[in-house]
Write a structure and sequence with these properties.
It is a single chain. This protein is an alpha/beta fold. The chain has a single domain (about 15-205), classed as Gcn5-related N-acetyltransferase (GNAT) (Aminopeptidase). It contains five helices and seven strands. The strands form two sheets. It has a five-stranded mixed beta sheet, sandwiched between helices. It has a two-stranded parallel sheet with strand order 2-7. The chain is globular. The N and C termini lie far apart (about 35 Å).
């Protein structure tokens, strides 16, 4: 049987995230991101990031609920998935976007708004085998949710090299965007100033 909202998934230890789970995770995530930005690197680059706070995800959620209520007569309960123990957790928060009718799977996408590898965010290097297993579990829930809600694919934007490699091992395909969906930010800085955009992921899209 399918796991209920907030319970463990089919893979042992996988938690399906509901709205009530997100605020605390967002606070942890934002704290790690701020610490990462403040860590000295000596490369002279200016770092910029959009806080992955609960308000950003609420905006995406409101849009998703409006559309799913119109198409399906109900709204999703599962907002993401989490696996692992505190300090080495991996979690994803997602939304479903519909560019076609509910049965036009190729036009509809489940977007992972934010994918967090806790050890990596704290400056560590995750074990490749462990990371691959954790991502397989989290992505497995995302794929099941995509199937249930008429989304033909799951996408995540700008994963780290380690995450990208692990995702490819569990069936993912890397795509380099050159014509559409290009992330951009207007920056009023010094001429020639080098900018590093941290956590440049789908949650910051508006």
């Amino acid at each position: 049987p399918a796991a209920a909202a907030g319970e463990e998934g089919s893979a042992k230890g996988v938690k399906r995230l509901v709205t009530a789970d997100l605020k605390e995770l967002c606070e942890v995530d934002e704290g790690m991101l701020r610490a990462l930005m403040e860590r000295p690197r000596g490369d002279g680059k200016t770092r910029v990031a959009i806080p992955p706070d609960a308000e950003h995800f609420a905006w995406h959620r409101a849009r998703e609920e409006f559309v799913t209520q119109a198409l399906f007569g109900r709204v999703p309960e599962i907002r993401g998935a989490l696996v692992g123990e505190v300090g080495s957790r991996v979690w994803a928060i997602w939304t479903r976007n519909f560019y076609g009718k509910k049965d036009e799977l190729k036009k509809n996408t489940l977007y992972i708004l934010r994918l967090v590898v806790e050890g990596e965010m704290r400056g560590g290097k995750p074990d490749e085998a462990v990371l691959e297993k954790q991502l397989a579990d989290v992505v497995g829930v995302a794929r099941a949710e995509a199937s249930e809600w008429g989304c033909g694919k799951v996408e995540v934007w700008n994963p780290s090299a380690a995450v990208c490699g692990a995702l490819e091992k569990v069936g993912g395909t890397k795509v380099e965007r050159e014509k559409e969906g290009i992330a951009s930010v207007m920056w009023y800085g010094k001429e020639g100033e080098e900018i590093e955009w941290l956590a440049n992921e789908k949650y910051a899209w508006c």
